[in-house]
Design a protein that fits this description.
Layout (H helix, E strand, L loop, with lengths): L1 H13 L9 E6 L17 H12 L4 E6 L2 H9 L5 E6 L8 E3 L4 E3 L3 E5 H11 L5 H6 L6 E3 L8 H6 L4 E3 L4 H10 L6 E3 L1 H9 L5 E4 L9 E8 L2 H12 L1 H5 L2 H11 L3 H12 L12
Parallel strand pairs: 1-2, 7-8
Antiparallel strand pairs: 3-11, 4-11, 5-11, 6-9, 6-10
Helix pairs in contact: 1-9, 2-11, 11-12
């Protein structure tokens, strides 16, 4: 039955309005470890590298091609309804004007504040732990930086009130920001704990993470986002048809465990507990 469904969806893909090759998913990725790792000893072991591979193991009939693009260009391409998919988006169900989302593929732990060890201790002593984030944002002596093009879910309204010292374009993503913090060119950033885990594990420094008082979410679902076009809708429906296999793909789970910073069993309980929520089992695009 699954093979029949996939064949039907592939036929739809080949007859869509897009100029893409039939049965092919065009991916866009960026240089942003540990989501995508383009070089070094962990090359192709980024979380979203592994997610793309898991999708194609579940859909061996579907070809793939990859464009490497800066994050702002990926965002603009989705806004322009260019027929591509970005595997590292925050799940927002159907409530998004730029993309169709797959069902959630995996779960991130909530954002945290990240700084070098002595300064993290200073921030915690002044603003508490969890940190009173708005008070920290308003303190002009601390330099906040983050990658250009990033959005931070429920924390974004606070960030919009207090422009960063640096929104850095270019390659390297959040890891480049952490390098600048380690070198004392910036003071702090906010990101997922996996980013600090990657930075510390790869021997680039020693970054400490602090919880955020205003962060109400206990988890953040990740998903694949595709152009809000007929092509994108068909691709998302195709991916959703094999989502149980993608979520349980052994290599994908191994990479999630690698960067979780916790023991694998603990992270898998966290991941599977939230993926099991009823709202994450439903179709996300109109038929």
């Amino acid at each position: 039955m699954r093979c029949v469904l996939i064949s039907i969806l592939l036929l739809l893909l080949s007859s869509g309005s897009s100029g893409a090759m039939p049965g092919r998913i065009q991916w866009a990725i960026n240089d942003a470890p540990p989501f995508h790792i383009l070089s070094g000893p962990y090359q192709n072991k980024g979380i979203c590298d592994a997610l793309i591979s898991a999708v194609h193991r579940a859909l061996p009939e579907v070809a793939s091609s990859v464009w490497v693009m800066p994050q702002p260009r990926i965002s603009q391409a989705l806004t322009d309804q260019t027929d591509l998919c970005f595997p590292c988006m925050i799940y927002r169900g159907s409530h998004n004007e730029r993309a169709y989302f797959s069902q959630p593929t995996h779960i991130y732990e909530p954002y945290q504040i990240m700084s070098r060890l002595p300064l993290a201790a200073e921030i915690a002593s002044r603003y508490g732990s969890p940190v009173a984030f708005e008070l920290l944002l308003s303190a002009t002596q601390y330099r906040l930086g983050y990658p250009a093009g990033r959005r931070y879910a429920e924390l974004q309204p606070l960030l919009d009130k207090y422009p960063p010292f640096l929104a850095r374009p270019g390659v390297g993503g959040a890891v480049t920001i952490l390098q600048m913090i380690q070198a004392e060119r910036l003071d702090y950033t906010i990101d997922y704990p996996i980013v600090a885990n990657y930075f510390n594990r790869t021997g680039q420094g020693n970054i400490s993470s602090l919880p955020i008082r205003e962060q109400q979410q206990d988890h953040i679902p990740g998903a694949i986002g595709c152009a809000r076009s007929d092509w994108g809708r068909q691709v998302v429906n195709l991916i959703n048809s094999v989502m149980p296999q993608v979520r349980q793909d052994p290599v994908f789970l191994e990479v999630l465990n690698l960067w979780s910073g916790a023991d694998g069993e603990s992270y898998q309980r966290f991941n599977q507990q939230h993926l099991a929520r009823p709202e994450y089992q439903q179709a996300t695009t109109p038929e």
